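Structure in, sequence out. Go:
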């Protein structure tokens, strides 16, 4: 589907620009997030082992900030955030705060 195809494009970009990157994934725990995550894994192929953390969140969650803190513990080079705009904005803010 389109989500998988889009995620594959991002995977190819990561592989081209940061081939050894440790990837942390924060994803919405629904069909949208799961399809996107599957597309990322497929796009990375055997490099999917570079995903060092996969942390889901529910749409009913008020904020993803605690999940971003947990993701930081995996020490990723790349944060791949799959979610709706509200949650992505929260995630970007928290990533910036954490450096």
């Amino acid at each position: 589907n389109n989500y998988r195809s889009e995620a594959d494009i991002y995977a190819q970009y990561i592989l081209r620009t940061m081939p050894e990157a440790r990837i942390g994934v924060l994803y919405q725990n629904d069909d949208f997030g799961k399809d996107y995550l599957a597309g990322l894994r497929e796009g990375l192929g055997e490099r999917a082992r570079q995903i060092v953390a996969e942390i889901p969140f529910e749409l009913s969650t008020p904020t993803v900030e605690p999940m971003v803190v947990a993701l930081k513990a995996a020490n990723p080079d790349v944060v791949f955030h799959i979610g709706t705009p509200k949650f992505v904005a929260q995630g970007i803010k928290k990533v910036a705060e954490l450096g």
